[in-house]
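Q: I have two molecules that I believe assemble together. Could you output structure tokens for the complex as a whole instead of separate predictions?
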Amino acid sequence: MNSLGTFFELLRSKHGLWRNVFLVALVALVVINLFVRPEEPHFGLDAYPGFFLVLGLIAGVLMIVILEKVIRPLLVRKEDFYGDV
Amino acid sequence: MAMSSFLHPSLGFLVLALVLPFLRGAFWKWLLILPPLVAIWSVFSMEQGVHAILPYLGQELVLGRVDPVSLIFAQVFAFMSLIGMVYAMHVTDKGQHIAASLYVAGGFGCVFAGDYLTLFLFWELMSLGSVFLIFLNRTRESTLAGFRYFLYHTIGGLFLLGGLLLRYKATGSLAFTQIIPENTAYYDWLILFGFCVNAAVVPLHAWLPDAYPRGTVTGSVFMCAFTTKTAVYVLMRGFTGWEILAVAGVIMAVYGALYATMENDGRRILSYHIVSQVGFMVAGIGVGTAMTINGAAAHAYAHIIYKGLLFMSVGAVLYSAGTARLDRLGGLVGHLPWVMILYMIAALSISGMPLFNGFVTKTMTIAGVAEAHHTWLAMGLEIASVGTFLSVGLKLPYFIFWGKKPASAVPAGSLKPIPANMYVAMGFAALICVAQGLYPDMLYRYLPYQLATPYVPWTLWHVLQALMLLGGAGLAVYLCIASGILGRHSGQNLDFDYFYRLIGRGVLALICKPIGWVDTIWNNVYQSVGLKALMGFALGSSAVDKTCVDGALDGSAYAVRGIGRIGAKLQNGVLQDYLALTTVFAILVFGLVWYFG
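A: Yes, here they are, computed for all two components at once.
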């Protein structure tokens, strides 16, 4: 493992710190959104501060939960379902 | 073909493919980068206009239609061919380089084609070149995938051929120009269908995630760049403003992103994201305003580079660890830190993160779609962006580089060192991703249309909007991994290729059953009637044979045996070899017809 690899391993071990930095950054984005307004709202709701953050969060969670819990169990087959491997 | 101020970029690649089999030693690997360098020089030095008109079969083939639309695609093709060739320099299998060269030559040929016949010839050359990039992975899995790929593209190609011939019959012209959506005929739809097969428009897309994960490590890097983007180019040439493409594009964008989120194989995740990203371009073409066309062209450029980088970096993991399956990888950041950095540059580019080229091209497309008052389509593209960041930006790197190693993971001790040329190629692609992100004008100046109010990506609001959208998606992934909803799963997910296979089996049964029936009857007839007659005939002829024919025949028998040996070598029952021979034969016939016709 080279020194860059060791450095990344060190970063990897501090995952709690990274999570906190990330959460603070998200709050900061919403606060900035209070002052920086959309040039031209297209969807109506995007006039509210934090809209795109909430859109990303809700779309992301819904997507993962529906795909992993509903769609994937219906569609998944064993790796060699077609007998190609 | 070489004309004043126009040297066809395909030429170098065709020459390379022709001479490579005869070269010995190790120096030839340096020749690989010559055709791309010539192509880059050629693209930057050629003049706009119509060049290289070739009489063929009573038609005029236009090999060099040079205008802003063909130039921007040719430029990115040239850079990508250089990146791909450098990435493949360590490969000693000449067959792979020949296949890649033919494939790239086909791509350039399509981009500069001014008529449908030229387009079709190069279109098929691409299809042939790429199928060998899959075959040459030399596993049972890739051989089978290669045949499916070839069959499917042949059918797509036949639709194109049928369409262009019927079009010629009706209009008397093979010119490849815009088709106005209001006055279309059925043959235009056939052509559109042929294009849509290569553009991987849902539900015609399933060949892509079937074949690309099974190509060679270096071959898939070429394939991910050229086939679908050539299709985007021809759609832009013929079908701008077709409303149906706007809807199809958004469906592709969302569908690809959703499927990628569920997949386990790294290269298959990336393959579904080709479907998704090409969806952005197809939507832009479908909406058909100057801004969305510019957006589609810009996004195609950026996409070729960052998708190439994604396939290269996941290819590097595959090369090193022997697998790209998430359930067999984990915690690799310490061992492959540079691969992780290069991968992340591409992943943030595809996600549209500020600083990277996806940000300046994707936002342009979405803004263009929204400004053309297709609000719901724009919303679909935003949601596809969330899905992209989920799977390529977070899930894949988390499970390969950062997350805990699963019990079935490849041990770190068995990792193969990655050749330097692969790093050089990835570094070059990463440089373009960042440079275009920071200085969008590097890319924008080559866009086909001049806008009354130029699009400015770097505004405070665009940056904030992108960061919020991706931040929200990041939080979603964090919550889902922490709660155990998102994890590693083995297995493959059914897609539309299930139905393709059903159709395939049906056709096979339709052909085989009647033949089998005739064969059984023939066997019976032969055994009861034919055999007796034959015995009688044989007795008679053996008498004649012994007395007079023996001597004369002995000589010719030797000749026949000689031919038989060559025949046996050629007819070895390996279909891939037949395909290669057919290709050589077809090119010979093409040359002869051109020379004498």
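A: One point stands out. Strands of chain A lie at 76-77.
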